[in-house]
# Entry
Amino acid sequence: MINIEQRTDSSAKMVILAPILALTLTAISTMIIFLWASLDVMNAFYVFYIEPLTGKYNLSELLVKAAPLMMIALGLSIGFRAGVWNIGAEGQYIIGAISGGAVGLYYYNVEATWLIPLMAFAAVLGGMGYAGIAAFLRTRFQVNEILVTLMLTYVAILFLSAMVFGPLRNPDGFNFPESRIFHDSATLPIIWQGTRAHIGFIIALLFAGVTWFITKKHMFGMQIKISGSAPRAARFAGFNENKTIWYTLLISGGLAGLAGLFEAAGPVGQLVPHLPVGYGFTAIIVAFLARLHPIGIVFTSLLIALTYMGGENAQITLQLPSSITSVFQGMLLFYFLACNVLIEHKVAFSFNWSK
Amino acid sequence: MDELAIQIILGISVASVPLIFAAIGELVVERSGVLNLGVEGMMIMGAIIGLVVQYHTGSGLLSVIAAMAAGMLMASIFAFLTQLFLTNHVATGLALTLFGLGVAAFIGKNYSDITVTRISALHIPWFSDLPVIGSLVFGYDPLFYLAILMVFLVWWFLFKTKRGLILRAIGDNHDAAHAIGHQVIRYRVLAILFGGGMAGIGGAYLSLVQVPMWVEGMSAGRGWIAIALVVFASWQPFKVIVGALIFGGISILQLHAQAFGVYIPAQYLSMLPYLMTIIVLVSLRIGSKSNTNRTMPNCLGKVFHSTS
Amino acid sequence: MFSTKLINIIKISLLTSALAISSSVLADVTKVAFIYVGPTGDHGWNYQHDEGRKQLEAHFGDDVETTYIESVPEGPDAERVITQLANKGNDIIFTTSFGYMNPTLKVAKLFPDVKFEHATGYLRSDNVSTYSARFYEGRHVIGKIAGKMTKSNVIGYIASFPIPEVIRGINASYLAAKSVNPDIEMKIIWVYTWYDPGKESDAANALIDQGADIIMQHTDSAAAMVVAEEQGIYAFGQASDMGAFGPNAQLTAIIDDWGPYYIQRVQDLRDGTWESMDTFDGVKEGMVEFAPLSDKLPADVKAMAQQAIDDLRAGTIHPFTGPINKQDGSPWLADGETPPMFPDVITMDFYVEGIDSKYPN
# Structure
């Protein structure tokens, strides 16, 4: 049926064609579902995919939703290139939000320009420290980082709950589990007047540029690439494997932590138990859809953000159930992942079961 | 033995069964070198399909088979993408979870206000009426015994059969296994389908035995716990039972402790199983470096592509 | 050149005013939106709010147009969803979970012409009202029934999160049960979730194993009711009539009846009399209702329960009537005294004397 052969070099044509093919397949599948649900197909299509791109408010919210995905995915992509699998960005995101947020609450009502940078610093440290546990266990005991980071994510979610029910609870909040609302100095600057689009998006874009530079132009980028694709060669070249593990986990943890704080001190404005909404996991998918390319991550995070907003729109306007969003996203991801194979491989249609 | 103690043990057992099913399936998948993070998605599909079939047919056997088929169908998407299209295991598994939760919720919209007949405990004449042993050994539902049986079968298959040996060899070094002529992809596809089927039954246990109704998102993270459990068990079938009893035990015992009036810092207590899993991982590495049977499959999560 | 531009401008302004006129003619249709924290099929909190929405539609017919959006987490997305609802021209938006408080207030500031109604919160503004119900009055009735109906003298209570609303429910039902049965003991399990049927049923089983023969719950799914039905014990429906899940087990249910309130507020809006206010209604106003009392109740218990309901309807009794001490023995209410709404009832963060468990946190 299908025979897949590795290309010697990735196909430049397919880099462009594969995502287009995936989008087309998704579009066709969603239309079939709309038809089956006896909806006005064109209208449903507009509501789901086009409306989130219209008007100032929708566009600004697209940036709000994409910013954390982008920032986390960028950090993860560096590690994934090196074969270091941090899948617990969700946990690092939460710890970053807690540590940065705690600084903001400690200096409650202190008006100062240094507060946001200090909170950001604490968040990065928090995220790094949390990812550092996995780095330590991997380098010291060869313990698999996939499993450690995943386990620590659950611990982080429970820790956030303990914090907002305990020490960080709003003392004037009638015992409801949430922190005080961050005062103005502890809230992120807005980049688009009258919207929630905050400085985090700009910073995420900056990181995209930095990541691109590192992976393409810098020695470290070369090092992680070789460590990922040919670990033995990397060792012969004198690259220190442990250093790669430490650096990549600290970078991805730090960025996830920063994204967590930006969400808490940005659109949410306080620490709440429901702060984590799965960005850490979605960002993994974002990174893979982009084939770990920093510029690709900018676009795929916007694309995924679009599907979330489209799903909300579909609920409001068409009264489609919320589950439809997950179904569409799942399909989109399957198509993307499958189409990406075309970039690195030639596909021929003959079947060889006995491989 | 005290009646309460018996009830607590029964409660822990019932809480453990879905974890055992999902974990024993995932264990085989991981032993073959594949990491499928879509367990939650496959479980929830098993839960809804099992319930729908039970509601319409009233046949427990049919429902469990249907749930297994649903899990396998989900797993086949994963197998198709990762084995034929060489997609990344982590990303594909996450996508599968997302997809499964969505589809199950979509199907479940029409079944939110019904209950179905619970698959009830077996009653074996004479045996089930024995004091203590009657309830503790002969007092469970059929799926409980199936779960234990599956653990035995998986152990037997992995360590006592030639095919099990090949499966483990593929998980440890797919290139070498391929070089000596083993059919890497075929083994992995079958392992993935088995994992899906077990996850599906585990899901059905939630909706047919634990709570005989459909509630959106009712798997509530149990698929993820199953993945933790495989690690906790250090890829050893029998340790899955031990691990499931610990995970199930902590959740049930803390409820009982509360009912006794003992103060429980719930969030910190709930962290324990996850922290223990990490500790197990570390001690595993310190303890037995020489014994390859007791460690992680070397090719776990790595994409295999034959170059020939 | 200049004149074509001018003509265009005139055309556009004419068009807009025409549109404005036509929309004011259509303004008879009030657009109402609801945002729910969980799925409408939970048979608890969200289900009842959606029942209220349906009552609203039935009452006003074509004069209202309702929209709802379900399963919106109380995180970063809530504010956007509420904004979108306001953007879509809704005249009044009901945000039905506590975690929507701050997002609601933020959006309300940007849409001064839209009215907002936030359930269970404590912050208001010119166009944000708050509303909740005195659910503890319902707990008073079921507490009395439970005190009479238990044979083991152990009542099991499945609690969600230690927030004032849940604490009030525990205290009210304990005091009521104690008033009719001095030997009563209440076992409380905190499950730290509103909605996890597996955990709720585990908790119900644990309580039953420890001797409880009546289950009360302050979580949203019907799982505990299903367990009670199978184990042949009694339970009370939470938020909605759960009789379908426990035809023998359910003695009655506390029903959150939001419909009349929703109808009233939309009527106020249409009449132009809508004002920002706080509503905390109970049995008397009809916001807290009861499912039919079960035939399993002996005549005297049934009469007692009916009497309690009637008294609450008449407003002649208060579930918290002194003398009541706090758990540590310190006095709270003197003989015959009832507590002020604020701060005692609204911020309640202590157990009353006699409850055995340690207060969480």
Remarks:
- Chain B touches chain A through 54 residues (CB under 8 Å).
- The mean pLDDT of chain B is 87.
